[in-house]
UniProtKB/TrEMBL annotation:
CDD domains linked: FNR_iron_sulfur_binding_3
Cofactor(s) required for function per UniProt: FAD
Protein name: Ferredoxin reductase
Species the sequence originates in: Nonomuraea cypriaca
FAD-binding FR-type domain boundaries: 13-114
Molecular function in Gene Ontology: 2 iron, 2 sulfur cluster binding; oxidoreductase activity
Annotated coiled-coil segments of the chain: none
InterPro entries: Cbr1-like_FAD-bd_dom (IPR008333), FAD-bd_FR_type (IPR017927), FNR_nucleotide-bd (IPR039261), MRET (IPR050415), OxRdtase_FAD/NAD-bd (IPR001433), Riboflavin_synthase-like_b-brl (IPR017938)
Matching Gene3D superfamilies: Nucleotide-binding domain of ferredoxin-NADP reductase (FNR) module (3.40.50.80), Translation factors (2.40.30.10)
One Pfam family linked to the record: FAD_binding_6
Residues making up the signal peptide according to the UniProt record: none
Keywords, alphabetical: 2Fe-2S, Iron, Iron-sulfur, Metal-binding
């Protein structure tokens, strides 16, 4: 083999048993679930996993969920929104008890990730449950003791739908959080309800060209937010997006 030849070994993703350790309610319809996954290879904040349920008759249902926390040994943390009439999310959020098992496969994804050694400021733009992988990045920054400034712009319908509300209220030097409410704003809110706009990103973000930008949420939200960042002058190569659509839960 010549010195110019490179061989890239692709790690094969396998299904692993995952045992539920604990469940914490985030909102009336969303829960954070912590699983123990023996042999878990670790992951980067921003990656996701596939989850598979298998019924007694052999029928399987599979969905993808973002990882909500940085790597911690064999523990995997997911935040799941209960989708009415869904096949997977109602079981995860309403039926599973500690000790029950499912299967997970991952981690998946290598572009929409943040590395804890980065010295570049970061703008995080999340719509609804799109906050989940962004929260993994926030927690990884805190865990690493990285002082790089983070600015989170979190768009959601109303304050009752806020994920990680208590954690995001705690002081975290270098992290600025801005809430944008689209339907109902809480009393005293400086901004009236409405969809994300150019002024929101200009006011809460950094000057164009300085930060890395991560945008996650429903497809229409991601497309709008990414277009606004481009309109502000952020280079396209500095804007990373992750979108999701209806999956049936």
């Amino acid at each position: 083999m010549s010195s110019a030849t490179r061989v890239t070994k692709v790690r094969r993703l396998v299904w692993r048993p995952a045992e539920l350790v604990r469940t914490v309610a985030e909102t009336a319809t969303a829960h954070t679930l912590t699983f123990r996954v023996p042999g878990w290879p670790g992951h980067l904040p921003g990656q996701h996993v596939d989850v598979r349920l298998t019924a007694e008759d052999g029928y399987t249902a599979q969905r993808s969920y973002s990882l909500a926390a940085p790597a911690d040994g064999d523990l995997v943390e997911l935040t799941v929104e209960n989708v009415p009439d869904g096949e997977v999310s109602p079981y995860l959020t309403e039926v599973m008890e500690p000790g029950d098992q499912i299967e997970v496969r991952g981690p998946v994804g290598g572009w929409f990730v943040w590395r804890s050694a980065s010295e570049t400021p970061v703008v995080l733009v999340g719509g609804g449950s799109g906050i989940v992988p962004l929260m993994a990045m926030i927690r990884a920054r805190r865990q690493a003791g990285n002082p790089v400034p983070f600015r989170l712009i979190y768009s959601l319908r109303d304050q009752d739908r806020r994920y990680y509300a208590g954690e995001l209220r705690r002081p975290d030097p270098g992290l600025d959080v801005t809430y944008l409410y689209t339907r109902t704003a809480p009393p005293g809110a400086a901004r009236p309800p409405g969809r994300i706009a150019l002024g929101d990103l200009a006011e809460a973000g950094f000057e164009p060209g300085r930060p890395d930008c991560y945008v996650c949420g429903p497809t229409s939200f991601v497309e709008t937010a990414a277009d606004l960042l481009l309109a502000l002058g952020h280079p396209p190569q500095r804007i990373r997006t992750e979108r999701f659509g209806p999956t049936g839960g």
